[in-house]
Amino acid sequence: MVELHLLTATQVLELIGNNSITVEEYARSLLDHIAKRDSIVKAWEFLDPALVLREAQALDQIPRDKRGRLHGLAIGIKYPTDYFEVIPPQTHAAVPDIAKYRVDSTIAEQLRNDGALILGKTRGVGFAVTTSGLDTTDLDNPNRTQGSSSCGSAAAVADCQVPLALGTYEDSIIPPASPTGVFGMGPIYDSLLFKDKANFAIHAGRYFARSVEDIQLLHYVPSPMSTLPYVIDALYNSGEEEGTCLLGTRTCLLRSIEAWIDSPDEGNICWLTGIAGGGKSTFARTIARTYDYRKELAGSFLFSRGGGDKSDGHKLITTLAHMLAERIPSTRPYMFDAIQKYQINITDNFHFAWEELIINPLSKVKGNSPPSTVLFVIDALDECDDESICAGLSNLLTTTRVLTNIRLRILITSRPEALDAHVGWRVQDKGLLCDLRDFATDIDRDIGLFLTSGLGIIQADVQLGLLKAEVTSRLASNYPDEVAIERLVKNSFRVFAWASIASRFILEDKMLIMERNDMLTKNRQSTGSQETCLDEIYTTVLRNSIKQNIDEKEKKTLMLREVLGSILIILSPLSMESLAKLLVKPLDYVENTLRNLHSIINIHRRIDPMSLRHSSLRDFLLDQKRCDGLDLWIDETQVHRALAKRCVGLMSIILRSKIREIESSDTLMNDILTNDPYHNLRNACIPHELQYACLYWLRHCDKGELYISDDDPFEIFFRTHFHYWRVAINLIGRRNDMYSMLRVYNQLRGRPVIRNYRC
């Protein structure tokens, strides 16, 4: 019989699965081989044979019906714990107290939950090579060998000390894999949650294996947390371009909020209110970033109406729970227990979820003296898409019990109207209630600094000779000088959103810098309110985008109303390409319509999702009185109806063929459902506009007050395409939403609501 340590992971799992060998027998074979070879290979920084054998014996005691899919498989990990920084580097066997620090890293915990036997911590050494047969020199410098922090993992796999081993960063995988002759998997298309901590960069997507079959085993390792909804785009650092407060601005407000967070005597809630465009979201991101650097941010959620899941209040608490589990690993066991016991209640009842996933796990964390700070930042709560959920969350968050073992702090921002009187009294009683108007002293100075910083690029380009002569000849001397900045500040009426739009609008066309500056500062009609201040700048930007002769202006207005209205009303951001396909318009039609609107709409590449730079644009265009002079009023109900028809039209044309193509291949269907953690395969098979149509056609019908009757296009689609639609929802990963979708359908049909449904 072949020695067990020589077997691949796939072979070992088969033998353990059919009871041909025990986990302990397999572990002893590996340990014997390591004992013989360790002085030569030096692949392990920490490996405790006694601990490995105890865990192997424990795995053998698990009943067959309760074993995980990786039961008994030995795996090496570069960083098996979340507190790896306490382990002295390059100490090999000189770390006897490692168990004292052992709090499993996220991936180690996931592997253990799947039944894997974590063998130990691999080393980060200068290089790893075999002794013959391969060119081991660095491609860039033949005088040295390649090396990386994952060399120990590669060496352990190559020497048959373990069949699979995890590495660290993407660029640390290939250098040791090639000269050691093993497979190295290092995808680079995923986004990292916390870029400053190495252990959060480790997952089952970066590993070494000796066979092609073994590669599939770690392609995707699910976590108990994966059953909970998680909106990564709602995090403060999700990758969108919105920034934080400019250094030196909002200093008084920052000091006040930081004093509340750090004080041992203050309440656990702070609610910050302010008008639209007042800078609440920028401030929230600033606080989140500050306390993230201090390792005291436990979670953040930035609501955005029309932002898809970012406007879904049901996903707030589960998203915060995901982040809390990453930041404070000792909360995970309590979360896992709650998920296993109360799965249905947790996803359906956010009061229960808050207690079981957040408060209860935090209350059981061993406290420090003085208690450490745990901060949650929840921005723009008023942009939650369901008013009843928003009200429920307000009551829930403001009644959170005080914890004695940690200093829990919850920062909430919203417009004033989201804070009713009862909640306001409760906040004042339990914490801090702030209004941006209370910190208005330095706003003019702050907006001046912001505009100077943004428009200062003009003079920088002039001095560096980066602007063409025809551009510089049209510029006023030293623009933007102090006088120009003062005029802009005066016209901003202390609204940061105005200053942000103005800066982008002026810079959008270098040939028209002075003309656009004059548009914003001359002939103002504002009577002095901050709302009319925003109305005026939106009117200026939109009028500028449709400056044509009479016929062309009328045509451009219709185009703008259709495209801009769709962007305003759409329930989850779409790219320019996807929106064009949904509207059945040429891509150039959409692109030309939006060409001069970069100052008010986030537009990057054609394939990137678009969004409003500020939600106040939606308020403006949906209010017929506020945008009366533009002929651009958006009738929300009519746009919902139009989008519902577009969604059903698109699905009726291509949904059947797309799903049949997927169903014709068992491998493709299975890969999308189980081996596609980053959704690349799903998105290739089901384009974004089709995913959108499947998910939101019924909500558009509902919001558009469209009632479904026999033989109308909606009922015909439902009757003839139900199977393909249901499969698509499952492939998109939203099968849990099917019940609520069918409930809406039956309400629109006037039928009784379905009580129980299984997708």
From TrEMBL:
Residues 255-415 form the Nephrocystin 3-like N-terminal domain. Keywords: Repeat. InterPro entries: Amidase_dom, AS_sf, NPHP3-like_N, P-loop_NTPase. The keyword Repeat applies. Transmembrane segments: none annotated. Residues 27-218 form the Amidase domain. This is Amidase. It comes from Penicillium camemberti (strain FM 013).
